[in-house]
């Protein structure tokens, strides 16, 4: 199909599903079509050449990733009017590859949430059929997942700090990929918890690469070294060892999710891969470690939103009692305020030893758990090929991405404690704490799909993709839908 | 007032240029204006100095003025010694701007008097999505400081965030080094030339830590609105933290600050001194009864921006704490500020109101790893420290007095190049004199004479012409030629002085040699008889409305009086004729010869 037709069809979808509230800003139709035509000319002319596989494709961008063409609000009142003077590196690279940015997607304020409910612009809904209660789109990149699922774009950018790409992907039945930490530049990605934040893709990967603007972006030398070392011992195209972490088999796991997990392992076994039970004994500390570390970093990162230089400023922000900027900062939503307070507490001089520092060591132990399970070591921290588990270790880990399929938003609103939502991240945060790559893909279970994730050792996206492909081909939604959910 | 919509021009052209070319910029010393930190509380703000002010020497005048007032206050403080029954202890935290053309974590250039908000990158303004990127070149001046302060440089140091809200701190936190600093455990030594409280072996003040951190923005406050200039945000600072040290008198504390400042400047770690606002100090003060070992409860006085303020604040704080103790009370640990108008410290916050900075490792920044050999090569390339310079200037090579050497060093601090100029002149004169140079008498060494000429004659003439050092019209060759002519008795001191004035004339292009030749300034080999003839004429003439005749009459009248007193009076009267003759001869004959000629003639005439 010609680009222009695809683009028009996507715009129709965006209009049709506007009640789902997945987009905060949308590019005007004439401008969008102009950009698409430009790509079309490039591709069809005799001299021209497609810049990349995403040349001329529509991409939606989560609204915490900076763009010069649209405001970047982070779904917060505090940045409602804010337009960045620069493009995020991932956006710049997507544009350079010919992609057309169609709009900015709705999310949980500053990425904090699991249902994309905590937005200044109202909650994202996965479906809004008449008479049907709306289901959660997952969070915090719910807008991106819905935009992809409903065919408004070819792919979307999200961010994954504790599962914010994979959980919405699982709930919406699309593919969500969280790369290894440090692979995709975070320059221009509004920080929630810097040490865990990754740019994730609901679609395909073309924006990988070193960025000097991002001090946590891996240098080309390190990338080369890690890939070189990994390639020595890869069991590529041979019989793979596939692990399932026993600690992920929680009582709270929905039956449908558990049986989809079993089906997935059975399918891989039928493809003559070895299935191995694996223990990650410290996984039980992952959620609490995450909910100490991420809010701590968030409380620091969000300190800058005082309304002095940009963004929302409360008209009464002239307090005489010495509490600087407090009326302005009351503009944060409840969840964000909750996490700022929790984070400030865990960093306070009385609590830091018991919370922040303990969580940091828990994080190290959890990373070590993963390295003890994989056949290859984490080459970021070692050069020694012998340090992995070798033959006894696994190539990838398979686990569900969510406890259940998407809950109804009404049910979520009935929850008494924010902890009920935090629990949703229990299956996704371990990969963030370890910095390893993970992809969530829909596995059919009866009429519905369940999100299953494939995790691999640091930098070993290649093996992760290999297994993901086997699962998708065997258990995914129909081939044409899976490869491009827009059609 | 709501902020304006974010402007697109958030980075200035020169910053962009630096991004592309990254030249090694050097701050020009003469372009350092006086900066007032306490814009709100200080007397009427002075208009910013225009570049023209520096050329016409206003800057130098200001420098002198500030030195003078500092001296005055020192004089008055000397009388106010600490209460004898108490020991006073201070700890210093000195913040100094590093000598680096770019900021600590961004590529924008550091600036001193650029228009507000023109040197800002997205990170400096804490725009969402921006990240720091460590500027390695900041390490060099910081390492020079650490090495000069005899610290152990840590192989690995890290950056932490220190959180507090203030409008001139855009990100809501300052990036500093809290958990592991750049360097630890150094010291600075004070000698008798630094403070009368030091013995000849010197007093060591221990330094606990030297760390890197970001500077804040500047608030320009007025009655209704506070304006914020972010140009300074993120510029590299070093913080130097001393261990607590006993302070025998308040000038000892300021001597420590001065010594630190001189050391930092000598190794080019910092270029802007305390009086220019490039250095700020927080001072911890505690007192305890003499003989008690345990330190008293300390109070911290924040943000003292000059030596004078520091001295005043410490004196007042010691008085306050002693008064509390004398009244049977207990000093509370608190943070205080200096109230300039009242001349007292005032409570900012108590212990219960203490800010919890919630230090957190910066999750974006990796550790700073100093490769092996870097510290050694920094140490080898280090410029001489102030004590070494002083030792050299007062040693066998230059023979300067400590006072003159310190004057030169202080001058050199303000206007770099003075000492190298001095050394150059000494070398040239020594070479010109050849073997004669070795015959210089004690007290008349070349180094000493050049020092006198530089400090008093050249320095004085620069001041009368209100010229900064950078516009000194005399090359080292010109001054050394002048001094060489003087020392070889080719010209008299009077001639030499007037020659110096001639050389200051903007239209003067001739060399010293040429001027002496053309103006016929060389000392005349006047024969004794000729000289006597001139003297005789001067004594007996009546070309000065009878004044000569009157003096002569007085001398004659002295004959009747007795002995030594008469002789003395006679000598005084005779000097009138010596002066008259010297004037007539335009100083071309040495005074001693004229004196003896006058004496001889008077004997004949009287």
TrEMBL record, chain A:
Subcellular location, record wording: Mitochondrion
Enzyme Commission number, as recorded: 6.3.5.7
A Gene Ontology term for the protein's cellular component: glutamyl-tRNA(Gln) amidotransferase complex
GO biological processes: glutaminyl-tRNAGln biosynthesis via transamidation; mitochondrial translation
Active-site positions on this chain: 62, 140, 164
Signal peptide (UniProt feature, chain positions): none
Keyword terms: ATP-binding, Ligase, Mitochondrion, Nucleotide-binding, Protein biosynthesis, Transferase
Alphabetical list of Pfam families matching this protein: Amidase
Keyword Repeat among UniProt keywords: no
One of the record's GO molecular function terms: ATP binding
InterPro entries for this protein: Amidase, Amidase_CS, Amidase_dom, AS_sf, GatA
Described function: Allows the formation of correctly charged Gln-tRNA(Gln) through the transamidation of misacylated Glu-tRNA(Gln) in the mitochondria. The reaction takes place in the presence of glutamine and ATP through an activated gamma-phospho-Glu-tRNA(Gln).
Family: Belongs to the amidase family. GatA subfamily.
Subunit: Subunit of the heterotrimeric GatCAB amidotransferase (AdT) complex, composed of A, B and C subunits.
Protein name per UniProt: Glutamyl-tRNA(Gln) amidotransferase subunit A, mitochondrial
Species this protein is from: Tuber borchii (White truffle)
Taxonomic path: Eukaryota, Fungi, Dikarya, Ascomycota, Pezizomycotina
UniProtKB/TrEMBL annotation, chain B:
Top class in the EC scheme: ligase
Reactions it catalyzes: L-glutamyl-tRNA(Gln) + L-glutamine + ATP + H2O = L-glutaminyl-tRNA(Gln) + L-glutamate + ADP + phosphate + H(+)
Ranges where the Asn/Gln amidotransferase domain occurs: 424-602
A Pfam family hit: GatB_Yqey
UniProt organism field: Tuber borchii
Complexes and interactors: Subunit of the heterotrimeric GatCAB amidotransferase (AdT) complex, composed of A, B and C subunits.
Domain of life: Eukaryota
BP GO terms, sorted: glutaminyl-tRNAGln biosynthesis via transamidation; mitochondrial translation
Keyword Nucleotide-binding annotated: yes
Lineage start: Eukaryota, Fungi, Dikarya, Ascomycota, Pezizomycotina
EC number(s) recorded for this UniProt protein: 6.3.5.-
GO MF, any single term: glutaminyl-tRNA synthase (glutamine-hydrolyzing) activity
Purpose: Allows the formation of correctly charged Gln-tRNA(Gln) through the transamidation of misacylated Glu-tRNA(Gln) in the mitochondria. The reaction takes place in the presence of glutamine and ATP through an activated gamma-phospho-Glu-tRNA(Gln).
Record PANTHER family: GLUTAMYL-TRNA GLN AMIDOTRANSFERASE SUBUNIT B MITOCHONDRIAL AND PROKARYOTIC PET112-RELATED (PTHR11659), GLUTAMYL-TRNA(GLN) AMIDOTRANSFERASE SUBUNIT B, MITOCHONDRIAL (PTHR11659:SF0)
InterPro entries named in the record: Asn/Gln-tRNA_amidoTrfase_suB/E, Asn/Gln-tRNA_Trfase_suB/E_cat, Asn/Gln_amidotransferase, Asn/Gln_tRNA_amidoTrase-B-like, GatB, GatB_Yqey_C_2, Gln-tRNA_amidoTrfase_suB_CS, Gln_synth/guanido_kin_cat_dom
Family designation: Belongs to the GatB/GatE family. GatB subfamily.
SMART domains tied to this protein: GatB_Yqey (SM00845)
Primary localization class, coarse: mitochondrion
Name of the protein this chain belongs to: Glutamyl-tRNA(Gln) amidotransferase subunit B, mitochondrial
């Amino acid at each position: 199909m010609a680009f222009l037709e695809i683009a028009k069809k996507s715009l129709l979808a965006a209009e049709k599903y506007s009640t789902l509230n997945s987009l905060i800003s949308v590019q005007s139709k004439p401008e969008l079509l102009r950009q698409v035509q430009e790509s079309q000319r490039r591709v069809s002319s005799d001299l021209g050449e497609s810049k990349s596989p995403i040349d001329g494709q529509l991409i939606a961008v989560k609204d915490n990733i900076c763009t010069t063409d649209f405001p970047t609000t982070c779904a917060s009142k505090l940045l409602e009017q804010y337009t960045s003077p620069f493009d995020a590196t991932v956006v710049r690279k997507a544009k350079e590859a010919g992609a057309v940015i169609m709009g900015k997607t709705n999310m949980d304020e500053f990425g904090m949430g699991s249902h994309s409910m905590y937005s200044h612009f109202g909650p994202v809904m996965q479906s809004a059929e008449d008479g049907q209660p709306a289901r959660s789109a997952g969070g915090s990149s719910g807008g991106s997942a819905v935009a992809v699922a409903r065919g408004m774009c070819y792919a979307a950018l999200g961010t994954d700090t504790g599962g914010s790409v994979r959980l919405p992907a699982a709930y919406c039945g699309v593919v969500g990929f969280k790369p290894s930490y440090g692979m995709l530049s975070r320059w221009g990605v509004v920080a929630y918890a810097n040490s865990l934040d990754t740019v994730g893709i609901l679609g395909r990967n073309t924006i990988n690469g070193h960025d000097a603007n991002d001090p946590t972006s891996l240098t080309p030398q390190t990338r080369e070294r890690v890939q070189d070392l990994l390639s020595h011992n890869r069991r590529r195209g041979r019989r793979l060892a596939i692990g399932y972490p026993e600690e992920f088999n929680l009582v709270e796991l929905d039956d449908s999710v558990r049986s989809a997990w079993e089906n997935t392992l059975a399918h891989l076994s039928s493809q003559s891969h070895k299935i191995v039970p694996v223990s990650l004994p410290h996984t039980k500390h992952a959620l609490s470690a995450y909910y100490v570390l991420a809010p701590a970093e968030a409380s620091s990162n969000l300190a800058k939103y005082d309304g002095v230089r940009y963004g929302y400023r409360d008209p009464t922000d002239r307090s005489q009692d010495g509490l600087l900027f407090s009326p302005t900062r009351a503009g944060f939503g409840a969840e964000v305020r909750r996490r700022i307070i929790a984070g400030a507490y865990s960093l306070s001089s009385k609590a830091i030893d018991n919370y922040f520092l303990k969580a940091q060591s828990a994080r190290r132990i959890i990373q070590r758990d993963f390295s003890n399970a994989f056949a290859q070591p984490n080459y970021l921290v070692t050069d020694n090929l012998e340090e992995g588990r070798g033959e006894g270790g696994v190539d990838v880990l398979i686990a569900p991405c969510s406890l259940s399929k998407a809950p109804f938003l009404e049910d979520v609103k009935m929850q008494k404690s924010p902890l009920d939502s935090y629990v949703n991240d229990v299956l996704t945060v371990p990969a963030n704490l370890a910095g390893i790559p993970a992809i969530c893909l829909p596995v059919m279970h009866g009429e519905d799909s369940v999100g299953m994730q494939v995790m691999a050792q640091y930098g070993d996206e290649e093996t992760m993709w290999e297994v993901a492909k086997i699962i998708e081909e065997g258990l995914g939604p129909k081939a044409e839908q899976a490869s491009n959910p827009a059609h | 007032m709501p902020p304006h919509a974010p402007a697109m021009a958030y980075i200035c052209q020169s910053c962009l240029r630096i991004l592309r070319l990254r030249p090694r910029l050097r701050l020009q010393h003469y372009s350092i204006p006086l900066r007032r930190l306490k814009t709100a509380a200080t007397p009427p703000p002075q208009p910013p100095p225009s570049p023209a002010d520096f050329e016409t020497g206003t800057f130098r005048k200001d420098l002198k003025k500030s030195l003078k007032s500092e001296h005055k206050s020192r004089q008055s403080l000397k009388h106010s010694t600490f209460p004898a029954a108490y020991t006073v202890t201070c700890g210093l935290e000195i913040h100094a701007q590093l000598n680096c053309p770019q900021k600590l974590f961004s590529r924008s250039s550091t600036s001193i008097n650029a228009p507000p908000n023109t040197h800002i990158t997205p990170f400096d303004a804490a725009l969402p999505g921006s990240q720091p990127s460590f500027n390695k070149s900041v390490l060099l001046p910081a390492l020079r400081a650490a090495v000069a302060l005899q610290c152990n440089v840590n192989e690995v140091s890290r950056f932490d965030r220190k959180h507090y809200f203030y409008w001139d701190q855009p990100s809501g936190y300052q990036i500093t080094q809290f958990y592991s600093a750049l360097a630890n455990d150094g010291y600075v030594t004070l000698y008798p030339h630094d403070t009368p409280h030091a013995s000849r072996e010197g007093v060591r003040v221990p330094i606990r830590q030297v760390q890197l951190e970001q500077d804040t923005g500047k608030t320009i406050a007025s009655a209704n609105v506070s304006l914020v200039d972010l140009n300074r945000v993120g510029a590299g600072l070093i913080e130097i933290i001393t261990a607590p040290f006993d302070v025998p008198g308040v000038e000892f504390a300021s001597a420590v600050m001065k010594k630190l400042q001189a050391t930092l400047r000598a190794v080019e770690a910092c270029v802007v001194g305390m009086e220019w606002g490039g250095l700020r100090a927080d001072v911890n003060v505690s007192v305890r009864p003499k003989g008690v070992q345990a330190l008293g409860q300390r109070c911290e006085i924040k943000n003292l921006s000059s030596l004078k303020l520091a001295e005043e604040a410490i004196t007042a704080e010691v008085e306050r704490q002693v008064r509390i103790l004398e009244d049977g009370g207990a000093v509370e640990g608190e943070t205080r500020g200096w109230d300039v108008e009242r001349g007292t410290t005032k409570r900012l916050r108590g212990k219960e109101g203490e800010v919890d900075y919630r230090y957190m490792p910066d999750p974006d920044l990796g550790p700073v790893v100093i490769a092996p050999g870097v510290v050694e090569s920094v140490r080898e390339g280090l410029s001489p420290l102030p004590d070494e310079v002083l030792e050299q200037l007062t040693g066998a090579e230059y023979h300067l007095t400590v006072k003159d050497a310190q004057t030169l060093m202080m001058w050199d601090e303000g206007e770099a190049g003075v000492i190298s100029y001095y050394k150059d002149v000494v070398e040239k004169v020594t070479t010109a004199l050849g073997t004669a140079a070795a015959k210089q008498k004690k007290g008349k060494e070349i180094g000493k004479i050049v020092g006198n000429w530089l400090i008093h004659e050249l320095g004085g003439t620069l001041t009368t012409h209100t010229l900064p050092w950078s516009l000194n019209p005399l090359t080292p060759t010109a001054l050394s030629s002048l001094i060489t002519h003087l020392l070889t008795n080719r010209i008299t001191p009077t001639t030499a002085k007037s020659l110096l004035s001639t050389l200051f004339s903007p239209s003067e292009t001739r060399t010293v040699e040429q001027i002496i030749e053309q103006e016929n300034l060389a000392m005349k080999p006047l024969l004794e008889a000729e000289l006597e003839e001139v003297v005789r004429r001067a004594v007996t003439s009546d070309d000065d409305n009878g004044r000569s005749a009157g003096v002569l009459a007085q001398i004659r009248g002295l004959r009747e009086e007795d002995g030594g007193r008469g002789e003395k009076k006679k000598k005084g009267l005779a000097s009138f004729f010596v002066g008259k003759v010297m004037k007539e001869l335009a100083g071309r004959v040495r005074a001693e010869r004229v004196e003896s000629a006058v004496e001889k003639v008077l004997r004949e005439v009287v």
